[in-house]
Design a protein that fits this description.
Length: about 240
């Protein structure tokens, strides 16, 4: 059976080409798979299930259609859409995963993450993340007036884009020592994550054993998907028209 993993689509009404590519991907590939894992930043911004736009609702309904055909769909929060909640998941027919989550693929344990918590050298971001993901902060955000949440979302999105351009490359990438430490602590030899927008398969050693870190790509000029089947792991890209 086939399992598909994607991340960092940043779905937004301003990029209808990406939305069309995703809907095509659902119809042509995801509907034929046993499972689909979405590892964060599925949406460019999410300010609460109660503020779901018609565009976002249409995406949820497309996911539900695939789920009704038998594909199990799992979704993990990213740094852009961490307010996705139960209402969206019910509508989309998907299961919300913790970050990190340890699953089994091809008979072996695999660790799934969004990937931002591996970037420990970005001290300012890690501090901001801890503050924002605090349960009290999350509760307060969900209960702010819609207009205020929209203002904050625009502010954070603009600030994030500016900081990524200004920060050194090694700061916004994973911390090399953090990867084997995290993998060893979860007892896995395969780690799959997104967030960094640097798709690749990295070979490494964990306690003297061969291991790998697979980085999913973001959807922009091309889409990225990791397919896992009885032939192994295949990280592929395809054009977004």
């Amino acid at each position: 059976m086939t399992t598909l993993l994607i991340s960092d689509l940043h779905l937004d009404e301003e990029r209808p080409d990406i939305a069309r590519a995703f809907l095509r991907f659902l119809k042509e590939r995801a509907s034929q798979a046993e499972a689909l894992y979405i590892l964060g930043d599925f949406f460019e911004v999410w300010i609460g299930d109660d503020a779901m736009t018609p565009f976002q609702r249409s995406i949820a309904e497309a996911l539900r259609e695939v789920a009704n055909q038998g594909t199990r769909i799992f979704m993990m929060h990213g740094n852009r859409d961490f307010l996705v909640g139960r209402a969206f998941c019910r509508l989309a027919g998907c299961t919300l995963l913790r970050d990190p989550s340890r699953i089994e693929l091809n008979g072996a344990p695999v660790l799934l993450m969004h990937g931002d918590t591996l970037c420990t050298r970005d001290i300012a971001y890690m501090r901001f993340r801890r503050r924002l993901r605090n349960p009290v902060s999350t509760w307060l955000l969900r209960h702010l007036p819609l207009s205020r949440r929209q203002q904050l979302a625009r502010k954070w999105r603009d600030a994030s884009r500016l900081q990524v351009r200004q920060k050194a490359t090694e700061i916004v990438d994973v911390t090399p020592d953090e990867v084997p430490r995290t993998m060893a602590s979860h007892g896995v030899l395969t780690l799959i994550h997104g967030h960094t927008h640097r798709p690749a398969v990295h070979e490494l050693q964990i306690d003297g054993r061969d291991a790998r870190r697979i980085v999913l790509g973001d959807w922009n000029r091309q889409g990225w998907v990791l397919q896992v089947d009885d032939r192994g792991y295949h990280l592929d890209s395809f054009p977004i028209a």
